[in-house]
Amino acid sequence: MAHTRPRRTTKKSSTSKRKSSKSKTGSSSNTTTNVKPNKELIKAIKDENNACKEEIKCDLDKLEEKSYMLIEKTTDETTKTLTDHLSEEFPEMNYAVSFNSSQDSSLNIETENLNDTIDIFKSLRDKVHNGNASPKSCHHYQELREIIFG
């Protein structure tokens, strides 16, 4: 025959009575403690929030500085690529003088505004598309097109 443990009903009932009496008297004090805000916790959260805001602001400032540096570097590289094969006097030269002094006769530009880059590129493009450009001009046009349009 299996051995069974005797039940202790008396202790359980007395314990449950004590618990119920505690919950009645202590319920109001427990509720107010749970509802009362913890000022130290709130201050710690606000401090952490402010620290995160400062860190984000600092990171944004660094990214902004890096973006300006990247733009400057890219501009310098593009300028160098565009002017690498040009004469040293080119930056001070008038566009018309520069292009018309070229040995390539198809680069002679006749535009109303000889210093307008768009007109010069358009004229070069038209010569290439019309078949009036020399092989050297076609090569220059292809290089410019790759640089500008990728």
> In total, how many domains does the architecture comprise?
2
Q: How many whole angstroms does the radius of gyration measure? A: 42 Å
Share in β-strands? under 5%
Average of the residue pLDDT scores: 73
Total count of strands: 0
Characterize the overall form. elongated
Biggest pleated-sheet summary: none
Low-confidence stretches: 12-30
Structural class: mainly alpha
Amino- and carboxy-terminal Cα gap: 93 Å
**Count of separate DSSP helical elements:** 5
Order of helices and strands: HHHHH
Topology (elements, then pairings):
Layout: H1 9-35, H2 39-83, H3 95-100, H4 117-130, H5 135-149
Detailed description of the structure:
- Residues 23-33 have a biased composition (Low complexity).
- Residues 1-40 are annotated as: Disordered.
- Residues 1-22 have a biased composition (Basic residues).
- The structure is a single chain.
- This protein has 150 residues and is mostly helical.
- The chain has two domains: 38-84; 87-150, no CATH class.
- The protein is built from five helices and no strands.
- It has helices spanning 9-35, 39-83, 95-100, 117-130, 135-149.
- The longest helix has 45 residues, at 39-83.
- The protein is elongated.
